[in-house]
Write a structure and sequence with these properties.
Layout: E1 4-7, H1 17-32, E2 36-39, H2 51-64, E3 70-71, H3 87-100, E4 103-106, H4 110-122, H5 138-146, E5 152-155, E6 162-166, E7 170-174, E8 183-185, H6 193-203, E9 208-212, H7 219-228, E10 235-239, E11 242-243, H8 259-264, H9 269-277, H10 292-298, E12 309-310, H11 313-326, H12 329-340, H13 345-360, H14 365-371, H15 386-392, H16 398-410, H17 417-431, H18 435-447, H19 455-462, H20 464-478
Parallel strand pairs: 1-2, 2-3, 9-10, 11-12
Antiparallel strand pairs: 4-5, 5-8, 6-7
Helix pairs in contact: 1-10, 6-7, 9-11, 12-13, 12-14, 13-19, 16-18, 16-20, 17-19, 18-20
The structure holds one RNA strand of 76 nucleotides.
Length: 479
Amino acid sequence: MSVRVRIAPSPTGSLHVGNVRSGLFNWLFARHHGGTFILRVDDTDLERCEERYLDEILDGFRWLGLDWDEGVGVGGPHGTYRQSDRFDRYAEVVDGLLASGAAYRCFCTPEELDERRNAAQREGRPPGYDGRCGLLDASEAGSRAASGERHSIRLRMPDEAIEFADLVRGDMAFAPETQDDFVIVRTSGAPTYHLASTVDDVDYEITHVARGEDLLSSTPKHIAIARAMGATPAIYAHLPLLFGPDGKKLSKRHGDTSLRAFREQGFLPEAMFNFMCLLGWSPGNDEEVISRDEAIARFDLDAVQKNSAVFDTKKLEWLNGEYIRALDPEDFIGRVLPELGDLTAEQEAAFRSLAPLVQERTKRLEEAAEQVQFLLVADDGFDYDEASWDKQMTKDFSRPSLDGALGVLEGVGEWDTDSIEAALRTWMEAEELSARKVLQPIRVALTGSAISPPLFESMDALGRESTLARIRRALDAMG
RNA sequence: GGCCCCGUCGUCCAGCGGCCUAGGACGCCGGCCUUUCAAGCCGGUAACGCGGGUUCGAAUCCCGUCGGGGCUGCCA
């Protein structure tokens, strides 16, 4: 039997990195086993689902290179792969479950349920549904429903323990008394997630369901539904959850939880891919930088770790830096250019000349853009970083350094990196001035900061006019 | 509260009874290099939650305990 796995995002928000990780592991599993990776949409909650979120989600998976063989956008033998288009199918399944007695109508109101749940909590009893409507005569319940009485539909949970072998957690068993009869169809007539998701898994012949551990305790429900449908449940694998730096569940509060946010900050898809592979799984040796093919070759679900992981952006940044440095220079330029906005031909040329130097010292594309900002502003169109100014421009050596350098630079013939460096170094040597004391003030004068790409190249890229103008401006500013 | 999962450096992983005086990576701290910042190189810091077993031998197996987390919805 060939492997068929799926990722089933719910378009109720941005693509969360937790979902991305689930998608990635499913994708790796499918590719490793030569199986089929399916992307379907769990959009039963019509109120909260939005098309723009779906677009963002699809875009995110594509960006990461997680291509799907069947599903939304690419089609396949199972229709649109959207739950909102399958309500008839769910109704059909429910009719069958009702007919077989596997499910029953429940006339309890939300208010009643709420009250009973609270009471149960207070008295230390299990808070689940007590199953009272399951005792009703089915045909009587049917006629009540036919006469328009509002009701939901619940699945009758079996009396035996539900057991299954989880691929990452091992043997699991849930006692029947801990499982209550849960809602599969809302009063509104809409199917719940449990129902729709499981029916889809059965219909689409999903062989393995790898998802977050938060669904572990719902698994008995899904197994019960599949069995009630007369199907064999999928094999489950519950992946460890991802947490934020504070050890709490990775949430919106941590700011950077949507894939889009990372993308906007200039993380490379290759780096994200690599990094997420290492969260809950390892290639089995001490390798950290691992290629896509290598990951596919070595990945398997039973090698996934059990304990949860903290999403460590520091390590992601390091890895991203590794990938950025490994980029072909032209490729790097192509990725940074869009971050810079509209450039004049001169600005682009200036950027290109400095790009290789920037590539070496950047961890994110956004950061690369910041490093070359000084090339893109007017000579008097930037502010000086306060700390840099205090450190370099208020000392005894500051003015003499800039004054002297200005004179030297005015005399430079051919304006290129080597000539600039030669002229400055010759002068520094003659005057017995340290590079530190001369070059740092110039750096601040040109870029506004004591941190910048290498200076001589920067001066070259900036051009003679701007370089001189900026030094004069700094001299003026020193008062 | 109930049910369930998890527990190796700050973080991510290796370890699956002896090769562990616990290894790698990120981070952090020093040093070298150096025009700043990076990169690179060298070195350092730092963990088997605790208590009982089992065993000749336990990070590895069992029990307990403590701690963290998830679920407990007519959300997914």
